[in-house]
Amino acid sequence: MGKLLVIGCGGVASVAIQKCAANSGVFSEICIASRTVEKCDALKSALEGKTKAIITTQRVDADSREQLVELIDRVKPEVVLNLALPYQDLTVMDACLETGVHYVDTANYEPEDTQDPEWRKIYESRCEREGFTAYFDYSWQWAYRERFKSAGLTALLGSGFDPGVTSVFTAYAKKHYFDEIHYIDILDCNGGDHGYPFATNFNPEINLREVSANGSYWEDGHWVETRPMEIKREYEFDGVGKKDMYLLHHEEIESLAKNLPEVKRIRFFMTFGESYLTHMKCLENVGMLSTEPIVYEGRKIVPIQFLKALLPDPASLGPRTKGKTNIGCIFTGVKDGVEKSVYIYNICDHQECYRELGSQAISYTTGVPAMIGAMLVMNGSWRVPGVYNLEELDPDPFMEALSVWGLPWTVDENPKLVD
Ligand code: NDP
Question: Where does the Saccharopine dehydrogenase-like C-terminal domain lie (predicted)?
Fold first, then answer.
């Protein structure tokens, strides 16, 4: 039993906090702290009478290490669950180190201002050295490993679905089905329909930055970069049906390539409908996806942030979204000298998520693993000093918790492969 501090109170946090509240045997106290404290207060009111956990709220600007340190010192949590944006990862990690508290997040660090010259210099040399141009990478957070280790603290990186569950599926496949894994295809299919011509299922700024960037995959020890949406495949998803999917760069490829050195190729595919892609292309062509500030009527605005203000709040898509998600990994490798393939996936129904927690399945499939990651650090199962991606830890308690907390999984030992 312990106290959890959650930073952020958006779509993902709302699911994670409700699941933590339902798990009051582990999370006896939950403090919800975010920039807009009114959202935290509204969630606290909605949970009143439904949980034994003591819930409090605070306002915090997580871009400020000082504010975070002051907040953590006052609240005194055992674990901080960072569900704000990737921009805040480093300030929250710094504050955890300074106050001696464990850390969990769902997305790796990316700077808000990609034109910052100091960051840009490091970024450009990384692009040249590594061979991929995404704005995010793990080097910033992996650099904290020794400091967390010597402080006796755990930092768990990427405890969402992808990354997160996909990493746990990989560790589980390696532990129970393979001696060596040679190929991994991560397939993220959203068969849900929200009825809007264009909306994103999680934070629009982060989502559009990711989807409009170059694709890439890992092959034979190096990155192969592609143009955005250059590689397209069709796949028949259990529970959803046939969908077009496109190869994207995705953060877990980087950690899986490092942690499973025997892997020959890792690819990540995500499904998109025609309407989404056409809108995105058009917005990109007119400059609305740009992260570079422009001056409009004497005020600096960032086009993608203005677009975010126009688009539906992902947290509001719950009542409208119908259909299912199917996210998982196809592994090919060898066991006892014999080549085999295994597909591990979860199917999640948007309307069932909405009925249970008032949220659509994308927030649900991220919020549940965020709670599980925080739970395993809180209860000691995954309390190992250092900075870890999820595939580095024992997958069994996480896999067991997925079934208990709403994300049951299926193992298909005869899957159709992606060419
Ligand atoms: P939302 O935009 O819905 O929520 C973000 C929350 O963080 C909001 O409550 C926001 O406050 C708060 N916030 C933003 N900046 C600050 C700040 N400076 N100080 C304090 N609070 C702040 O995002 P989502 O819930 O959709 O996503 C949350 C995280 O989950 C993101 O990092 C996203 O990348 C990640 N994610 C991970 C996935 C995975 O599978 N691994 C999948 C989907 C998302 P305010 O209300 O004031 O805006």
Answer: 160-403
